[in-house]
Amino acid sequence: MPIADNKIYLASKSPRRRELLRQIGIDFEVLLLRDLAPRGPDVTEQVLPDELPYDYVSRVTQEKAEAAWTIMQHRRLAMRPVLAADTTVVIHDQILGKPADHNEARAMLSQLSGQQHAVLTSIAVVSTQGRWHLTQRSEVLFATLSEQEISDYCLSAEPYDKAGGYGIQGSAARFISHISGSYSGIMGLPLFETTQLLRQAGIHIP
């Protein structure tokens, strides 16, 4: 059944995900989850003991979607599908989150230098018609980086709000020699897969 106003809620504060949704003509409102004290976050992004990367990113994404759906109901907002997403970078089965500081960003980029790593982006959609979820995987190969290149990049603002400490859509693109998979997925929202899920939820996408 089509949604009356053909609009969704996006449970993400990522400007990149907003840009990508606009790219394919999706009308949305941002529905932010709480991530600060005193009541604590709506969804914790801590990795559970022995949790594998795929299980981690899938769990966090589905929890975000369900939390946003609950918020929508509690606030008595217009009933629309909710889209949530989460991206993680994985190298040698190790999850690389967002670097907390300059030293952590340098360490992550040094680890990625000259290596291939995976980018997992999980998306979840919740609506009155059901729940849908999938995780898209891409592979990214970094060139070997010099200490100066790493240092210069870490002096910019780019590494600090991105999983793995880099953004493919920014100046780090010059470090990447090859990708396999979804460019938009590496950015944070695989558009082909997102389109399929939103259509299942009743959103009309020409």
SSE layout:
Elements: E1 7-10, H1 15-23, E2 27-30, H2 53-74, E3 82-91, E4 94-96, H3 102-112, E5 116-127, E6 130-142, H4 147-154, E7 176-180, H5 183-187, H6 191-200
Parallel strand pairs: 1-2, 1-3
Antiparallel strand pairs: 3-4, 3-5, 5-6, 6-7
Helix pairs in contact: 3-4
Q: How would you describe what is shown here?
A:
By secondary structure, the chain is an alpha/beta fold. It has one domain (7-200): Maf protein (Alpha-Beta Complex). Helices cover 32% and strands 25% of the residues. Strands 1, 2, 3, 4, 5, 6 and 7 form a seven-stranded mixed beta sheet that branches. A hairpin with a 2-residue loop joins strand 3 (82-91) and strand 4. The mean pLDDT is 93.
Q: Tell me the number of helical segments per DSSP (H or I, 4 or more residues long).
A: 6
Please give the domain count. Answer: 1
Shape: elongated
CATH-defined fold name? Maf protein
What percent of residues are in strands? 15-25%
Helix content: 25-40%
Q: Return residue spans where pLDDT drops below 50 for at least 5 consecutive residues.
A: none
CATH architecture: Alpha-Beta Complex
Please give the alpha-carbon distance between the first and last residues. Answer: 16 Å
Q: Order of SSEs, N→C?
A: EHEHEEHEEHEHH
Largest beta sheet, briefly?
7 strands, mixed
* Cα radius of gyration in angstroms: 17 Å
CATH class: Alpha Beta
